[in-house]
């Protein structure tokens, strides 16, 4: 039917990509030297439908201490240690920012020597550093380009979340909890402060590094030792685990609605579904907590999870319709809406009804679900989606991708799954439509961050609060 309507099938791009949620490798803890993700299009391509604000509100109602850039508790430990180290040296302003980058390079070089550089965004530049004779003076050479944006890095990623966790004050000073975490992280190779193991603290390494000595040439820093400092392979000592356990308990007290996420995590099989089958994941997660809710302790958690499900279904179907119509018009021409599936209108309307209820229950000021709920057919839905896209882009002073009549900007969605998805839906029923669209446009709800943190704490079966 689609081929008959406009003469050819849209060609899917060779690389499937979603900037909405991490891929399967994203559960590996990562160290980052820059706090932003470079996308192929400009800022006007980010969040073209205005989903970010309601999504953030729903996400923060469960786990406000996580962002898409906070991937590892080890980075919080490094940040707290680095803040304390630089404060002791009375660094401020530019010196503080530059000093933070100096220390990040040392940590990154240790990760590389330990053969575990996974997740280091500046790995290409760091890999150019010499393996022997590396000093701070060498690392600062312009040819390596490691100081082009010194204001960004672990501090840019983790400072805000560290405030929420209670490790930093609003003015970027260490709290008592932050001092404890910094101290524990510094001594992670020595099994605790005052315990002799013959291995260096990070402070000792950093002092020598800042004195322009070739720290990594030390025979004591074997590959195995360096690997214990790495973000993805390093193990916290017991002191660090205890600091984090107290931090998680404080978080539960502060946001009790999310307690079950920490104290009663789902099975490993269900965790895998979060990455591979979002359509079935949410119902299974809701069932997991409903079965433990005889006393009503998870009532609020269940309500909030249900709102996340309603939002994700609605956002996925709306995003699919928007991307399909943009790409169809860009590649095939014409401005008359052509639905990629006969059930898309009804599924989008039903999801809009559920999302409208969720929005009201959450007290959000967001009318997109109500506007789409009132549409009588697919053509009206597309008109409403485009109108809301134009309004949103203009509010953020960005050019719309298209309006009711024309495509205004080309090549805005080079990695969209919509063309391939539309082909896959040729013989699908309405259930398969919703399932495949949800799996193509997942959102990041940070449940995997909770599981990663629990593994780090040695409490994979649940935190004892």
Q: What does it look like?
A:
By secondary structure, this protein is mainly α. It folds into 2 domains: 2-28 and 262-447, no CATH class; 73-252, no CATH class. 54% of the residues lie in helices and 0% in strands. It contains 21 helices and no strands. It has helices at residues 2-6, 52-60, 73-88, 93-113, 123-127, 136-139, 154-165, 176-186, 202-210, 223-229, 238-254, 259-263, 268-276, 278-290, 299-332, 344-362, 368-373, 378-395, 418-424, 430-440, 447-457. Helix 3 packs across helix 8 (176-186) and helix 8 packs antiparallel against helix 11. It is globular. The model is unreliable at 1-19 and 22-44 (pLDDT under 50).
Helix content: 40-55%
In angstroms, what separates the terminal alpha carbons?
A: 57 Å
Low-pLDDT regions: 1-19, 22-44
Total count of strands: 0
N-to-C order of helices and strands: HHHHHHHHHHHHHHHHHHHHH
Strand residues, percent: under 5%
Shape: globular
Main sheet summary: none
Number of helices: 21
Mean pLDDT equals: 87
Rg of Cα set? 25 Å
Return the structural class: mainly alpha
Tally of discrete structural domains: 2
């Amino acid at each position: 039917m689609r081929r008959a309507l406009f003469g050819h099938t849209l060609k899917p791009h060779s690389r499937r990509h979603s900037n909405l949620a991490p891929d399967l490798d994203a559960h590996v803890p990562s160290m980052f030297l820059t706090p932003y993700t470079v996308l192929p299009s400009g800022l006007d391509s980010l969040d073209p439908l205005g989903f970010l604000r309601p999504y953030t509100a729903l996400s923060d109602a469960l786990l406000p201490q996580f962002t898409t850039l906070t991937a590892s508790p080890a980075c919080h430990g490094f940040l707290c240690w680095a803040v304390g180290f630089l404060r002791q040296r009375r660094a401020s302003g530019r010196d503080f920012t530059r000093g933070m980058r100096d220390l990040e390079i040392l940590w990154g070089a240790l990760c590389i020597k330990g053969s575990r550089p996974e997740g280091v965004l500046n790995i290409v530049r760091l890999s150019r550093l010499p393996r022997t004779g590396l000093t701070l003076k060498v690392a600062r050479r312009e040819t390596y380009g490691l100081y082009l944006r010194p204001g960004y890095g672990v501090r840019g990623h983790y400072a805000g979340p560290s405030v929420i966790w209670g490790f930093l004050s609003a003015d970027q000073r260490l709290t008592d909890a932050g001092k404890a975490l910094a101290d524990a992280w510094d001594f992670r190779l020595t099994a605790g402060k005052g315990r002799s193991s013959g291995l260096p603290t990070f402070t000792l390494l950093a002092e020598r590094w800042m004195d322009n000595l070739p720290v990594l040439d030390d025979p004591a820093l074997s590959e195995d030792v360096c690997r214990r400092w790495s973000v993805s392979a390093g193990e916290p000592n017991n002191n660090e685990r205890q600091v984090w356990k107290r931090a998680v308990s404080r978080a539960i007290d502060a946001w009790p609605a999310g307690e079950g996420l920490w104290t009663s995590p789902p099975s490993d099989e269900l965790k895998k579904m979060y990455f591979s089958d979002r359509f079935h994941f949410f119902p299974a997660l809701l069932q997991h907590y409903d079965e433990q809710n005889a006393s009503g302790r998870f009532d609020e958690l269940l309500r909030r999870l249900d709102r996340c499900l309603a939002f994700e279904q609605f956002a996925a179907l709306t995003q699919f319709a928007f991307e399909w119509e943009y790409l169809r018009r860009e590649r095939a021409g014409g401005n008359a809406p052509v639905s990629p599936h006969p059930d898309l209108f009804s599924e989008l309307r039903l999801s809009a009804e559920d999302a409208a209820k969720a929005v009201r229950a959450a007290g959000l000021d967001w009318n997109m679900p109500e506007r789409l709920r009132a549409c009588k057919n697919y053509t009206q839905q597309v008109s409403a989606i485009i109108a809301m896209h134009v309004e949103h882009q203009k509010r953020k002073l960005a050019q719309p991708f298209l309006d009711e009549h024309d495509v205004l900007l080309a090549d805005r969605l080079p990695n969209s799954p919509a063309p391939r998805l539309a082909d896959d839906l040729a013989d699908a029923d309405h259930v398969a439509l919703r399932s495949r669209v949800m799996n193509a446009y997942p959102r990041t709800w940070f449940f995997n961050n909770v599981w990663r943190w629990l593994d780090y704490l040695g409490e994979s079966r649940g935190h004892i609060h």
